[in-house]
Here is the input.
Amino acid sequence: MTRRIFAGHLVRELRTRLALPQAEMAARLRISVSYLSQIENGDRPITPAVLTALGEAFPTDWATIDPQEETSLLIEGMDAASDPSVPEGALAQEIVQRGVKQQPLLVRRMVALHGAYRRSQDQLRVLDDRFETGEARLPWDEVRDWFHTERNYVDPIDREAERIADELAEGPRGIEQRLRERHGVTIASGERLRDYDPETRTLRLDPSQAPETNLFSLAHQLARLEFADLIRDIAHSGIDTPAGRELLSAGLANYAASALVMPYGRFRVAAREMRHDIDRLRQRFGASFEQACHRLSTLQRPGAAGIPFFFCRVDMAGNITKRHSATRLQFARFGGACPLWVVHEAVAIPDRILVQLAETPDGVRYVSMAKGLVKPSGSYTRPPRRYAVALGCEESHAPDFIYADGLRTDGIATPIGTSCRICPRHDCDQRAFPPAGSEIRIDADARGAVPYGFR
Here is the structure.
């Protein structure tokens, strides 16, 4: 007999936490408002169909508060059974439900194998990166891989930063006051972005920089002073090489600064309310466009996760200088990113937002936003820094991503890949070289945009 699950209070808590009206949540679950109201009031159980809809519509939120292990297995099983990158087609929901009831060990094995398959794809990308450079992993790569393994979320630092932020007055005044009163730090003008003298406890900031840049520098200095022990413990337990530990410590201080300027709970709620409108978010929290984008990619707290985003920064040469993905999309780490991706066009068009609906070879579609940015140097003798940032999510989250409003998500998606060396597309006119391990075929009597085929 099927066990009846009455967990309406958890559904109501989820809806309240996400600040969703009943009508919007009901629409996402494809049920009526009255049905949702009955579930929340405990008058009706949550059916397997509604449980699956909850997992699909709120994958990072609902899975963490799921009241039944069986339900979690169903959600994970549906994810594995519907992965478009696995051949032979997806399994119907009814088949997975029957498997969870009758053969739960078999479904768990399927989920575990799917996880191993996904990890093997990540490892393939790492091997592709190493083949591209011909070098061993550098300390910089160690740190990037560490953040990737942590899903770009560092819980002890984030929670401590949130606690401190609640004690501060908003904006630069609160951070300056804490630096001055608790640490005896004096703020002065200087020629470098940030220059701290520990002997005199003087922090010099470049007055030509934007206010949000100097606010972040203040927060970074406060983080270095108040999080020193915590950062040291994390860095020493996470990286083996001295240079890697130094780089990770700097990265953790930047992470803490971001968490001080944009405290987790407040920022997450505001992001939901504003449908992740970057300009509105940066104005509310006094952050830069890039800082707000990066912060959105860190909202992975268990039980209170944000939308899974990917985020990256690309320079004028096409090098990816920052990258993180909480989605299935992964990046080439040493350049070589797909030229069809809109971020490359954005580099050449500063201060203009471009949007794109893209599809990766595994059939997953993404809505992405990219914007070209220019950071002034403060002097004619030094050229400004020019680059672009990109932020995106899977198509299923389009209703919560304001940049998807101008796109037809039922329209044609741009076919993109991670790197030519591992991209299987045969019909790409932008291919730079064939996939690694493929067999090249040349037809002397005919050719297309790419002068070879492969198999």
Remarks:
- Residues 45 and 409 are 33 Å apart (CA to CA).
- Residues 104-133 form the longest helix (30 residues).
- The first strand starts at residue 186 and ends at 189.
